[in-house]
Specification:
2 helices, mainly alpha, 57 residues
């Protein structure tokens, strides 16, 4: 399960970065902001999984 969650976090980070870059390139502030939000969500998920790993070992 942890590997699935880590993969999901990475996917969210990548999608968020793509949206942010696209938004910046097109001047779409809304897309840029949504992209940053997606990255943050992925970062939070990744941090949660890392914390779980610390307590497993």
């Amino acid at each position: 399960m942890a590997k699935e969650e880590k993969a999901k976090a990475k996917k969210e980070q990548i999608k968020g970065k793509a949206k942010e870059v696209t938004g910046r390139a097109t001047g779409d502030l809304r897309a840029e902001t949504k992209g940053r939000g997606g990255q943050s969500k992925g970062d939070a998920r990744q941090a949660k999984e890392k914390t779980k790993d610390v307590f497993k070992h």
